[in-house]
Amino acid sequence: MGDIFKVFNMMAWFPENVSTFGAELDNLFGVIYYLSVVIFFLTFGIMGYFLIKYRHKEGRKGYNYHGNNIVELTWTILPTILFAGLGLYTDSAWAETKYSHKVPVADVEILVLGKQFGWYAMYPGADGKFGRNAYTDRSARHLMSTTNPFGIDSTDEAGMDDFVTENQFKIPVNSNVVVRGSSIDVLHSFFLPHMRVKQDVIPGLWMKIWFNAFKTGNYELACAELCGGGHYSMRAEYEILSKSGYDKWLDQKNSDVKQLRMMSAGTTEPAPIVEESHPASH
Amino acid sequence: MSETSVVTPDSGTMDVGHHDHHELPWYRKYLFSTDHKVIAKQFMIAALFFMFVGGAFALFIRWQLAYPGKPIPVIGSILPASWVTEPMSGVITPEFFTQLLTMHGSVMIFLVIIPLAAGMFGNFCIPLMIGTDDMALPRLNMWSFWLVPPAGLIMMAGFYTETGYAAAGWTSYPPLSALTGLPVFTISGQTLWLIALFMIGFSSIMGAVNYVTTIMNKRAKGMKLFDMPLTVWALFITAIIITLGTPVLAAALTMLFMDNFLHTSFFLPDSLVTSSHYAGGGQPVLWQHIFWFYSHPAVYIMILPLMGVVSDVLATFSRKPIYGYKAMVFALSGIAFLGFIVWGHHMFQSGMNPLLGTTFVLSTIVIAVPSSIKVFNWLGTLWRGDIRFTSAMLSGLAFVSMFIIGGLSGVFMASAAVDIFIHDTYFIVAHIHYVLFGGSLFGIFAGIYYWFPKMYGRMLNETWGRRHLFWTFIAFNCTFFPMHVLGLAGHMRRIYDPNVYDFLKGLSGLNEFITISAIVLGFAQLILVANIFHSLIWGKKAGRNPWNANTLEWAAPEHPGHGNFDTDITVYRGPYEFCVEGRELDYWPQWEPGESISVHHHTIAVSKEESENKVFGAH
Ligand code: HEM
Ligand SMILES: [Cu+2]
Ligand SMILES: [Cu+2]
């Protein structure tokens, strides 16, 4: 029995929230939910009452009445105010999370690419700057290939320390993470359920996505846009690290990259994939 | 109308006026008939057939979600090898799963709901309810039906292509739908899907042009526009939406067809790593704009006719005038107009400029207003009624109540901020089904229970009708309400196996419950089919006007033949004069002569002299 009521306690079903703006979004859902519950009981109550009270009985006669303009006007204006108010009320949260001029200054910048069926993430490396690639320079898009999905121009010094992870990424806690998302094939959707983030990524465009986690831990990235048979398996993991843990990881990666670069000196290899996992294939 | 009597196409029991003197060969009577009633029945039979096909697809989907990796019972071992992971394993592949969900959506929307809502009711109701013998353009009408079965077959023929059925969802977003991986000029399931949809769109347009022409030109003597029943109004407005919207879909389909079949790049950008032989330079999001510019109005194509049907059913069985008849007409028009400026609410997370998101929030939220006006007027219609709980009425009430829930879930998604989390989750799936199954399909049931007597001259069995509706209503809610919850937990739609994700691990019980309910829901529909067949043969004779209703179709003979009416029809009043003061009977058909006056929104019957002397000071 308790289980049945749990189904109606909608707010309890949200996955844990780790995002700074997540609580606000969840609360907006709650506002509409409680409003809906009121409207639901009101309309269903009235309907139930009428159905019982005015059910056919011997001698009962319908009331020939065609309606009343004042009543009509009332139930036009009231919902208009209510719904329009609701729309305006929720708009600031929308602006804050999605408007591109509201995206905060990035503490960490990552490029993310969706592919059938997985995710790449690219970090700017030790210099904190991306080299020439399909994101920083549109004309580098022709360099994109299955082995070099980000279209990295390997002749650019600034890009020598950029590195790529596959099906996982790491971010620091309490930092503004700005992700530029795109795709190498079809549409995907960058969905971080615990971060209350969802943004379709489109081949040929770079979407600006941001979030800020207030808690460390391991969470999941899913694809929310049908992208083919393997859509369901487009799972990746991300870890929210403490600031020092994140720095340590970055240092580790940076030296890994240096080493890899040294070994392949002179060749024109794209950014090495330094870490990958296939969490979906179990 | 002449009094020549001929054997009528499908009854033989009733003789009605007819201009043709020679008998038609059988295939002109039953197959290539131009009689609007025969065409309506053809739409009904074809669509009910496709409903079972689409339903079977849905049960496959549900089985996989509740029991991922377990073989499908009973028929698992006889499934074609290309559908299953290993021969005879009975476990469907992820690729086939995406084909299933694509075909389920496409079949239900384009081959079931639209043909029933617009095709069947449009054809059956319009000429009868405006008191005329047939459509203005009967031959066009015939072709509007005869494009549908071939379109259905073409869509199904996707099975025989190399890639199987179309697999990009009913919304078919490119690049996925454009990139088949096949050489140029090679037909894929997606190509066939595009061709089929094009044909269905063509059929819709032919029907719609006909509806508008017929309503504008062929109303019975005395029938003003505001004497038309709401069913006719709704179909009229729907037809206008179709004529304005469907050509846009045709344009989109043509472009996608070229991308898919001729390898052009309308929707393909130039950095597709895995498909680099395309010229590129296109824009994938463009498809979404054009598609939703049609498909949002299309969701109203799927529900407006049923709003009309339910209004008529509610008025008849409450024995009351519809509350706010003109407000209802204005609300329908408002929905139709606003429907064309809200498409972006499907694209909040698509990468469209978020500033546009804000605009579309406002327009979308505003469209909830005419929807609520309709609900309030339906409730007002029940108020102080004399309510008869027939099967038709019960379906109508189910429509109203489920539409309330579907409309409310719409408000969540209409807020772009709230939509971030629930977009592309099961919350959307719940919404769709509350409006399209809970709404449209219950409305269709209402219409079938209501007009079956006029279609076939026999009553449907009321007891079995109630059983059908009871089980459908319970199973429907058990199937679709929990989907809101899945969505809130973050369960993405269109995924093959939720168990891949840790955050979805706790939901398998709910998924199982939904699947069991869905199976019950599917089987409950057999009651309707059995009832239809049983009543066709053994049903009680209906008589002319079994529900004591007011609208003109009930003036026609028990089982009207070609030409419909056996008397001259003149319209004397609006369609909803129930329980008029000064009358013995609790209804007052539109075709019955008699004078009345209107005092403070009440209608009062008066004698001729009284009305001439204006003794009541009518205004
Ligand atoms: C109060 C009125 C309504 C509002 C505010 C509303 C709002 C919305 C919104 C915002 C979406 C997009 C959600 C998303 O993808 O994130 C949506 C989806 C949808 N709505 Fe409604 N809706 C309403 C009524 C209806 C009605 C009456 C129908 C059909 C009869 C309908 C059919 C659909 C369908 C089929 C989809 C899903 C399309 C897909 O597959 O993505 N809606 N609705
Ligand atoms: Cu995907
Ligand atoms: Cu819409």
Largest sheet of chain B: 2 strands, antiparallel
Could you give a short account of the major beta sheet of chain A?
6 strands, mixed
Helix coverage percent of chain B: 55-70%
Q: What amount of the residues of chain B lies in strands?
A: under 5%
What does the average pLDDT of chain B come to?
91
List keywords for this structure.
heterodimer; A: 282 residues; 2 domains; 6-stranded mixed sheet; 5-stranded mixed sheet; B: 619 residues; mainly alpha; Cytochrome C Oxidase, Chain A; 16 helices; 2% strand; disordered N terminus; binds protoporphyrin IX containing FE; binds copper (II) ion
What does this structure look like?
The complex is a heterodimer of chains A (282) and B (619). With 282 residues, chain A is of the alpha/beta class. Chain A has 2 domains: 90 residues, no CATH class; 173 residues, Cupredoxins -  blue copper proteins (Immunoglobulin-like), CATH 2.60.40. Helix content of chain A is 32%, strand content 22%. Chain A contains 4 helices and 11 strands. In chain A, the strands form 2 sheets. A 6-stranded mixed sheet of chain A has the order 8-5-1-2-3-11, with helices on one face. A 5-stranded mixed sheet of chain A has the order 4-10-9-6-7. In chain A, a hairpin with a 2-residue loop joins strand 1 and strand 2. Chain B is an all-alpha fold and 619 residues long. Chain B has one domain: Cytochrome C Oxidase, Chain A, CATH 1.20.210.10. In chain B, strands 1-2 form a two-stranded antiparallel ribbon. In chain B, helix 3 runs antiparallel to helix 5. The longest helix of chain B has 36 residues. The relative contact order of chain B is 0.11. The chains are: A alpha/beta (282), B mainly alpha (619). Chains A and B meet through helix 2, helix 3, strand 7 and strand 9 of A and helix 3, helix 8, helix 10, helix 11 and helix 12 of B. The structure holds protoporphyrin IX containing FE (HEM) and copper (II) ion (CU) (2 copies). The site of one copper (II) ion has 5 residues of chain B, from helix 8.
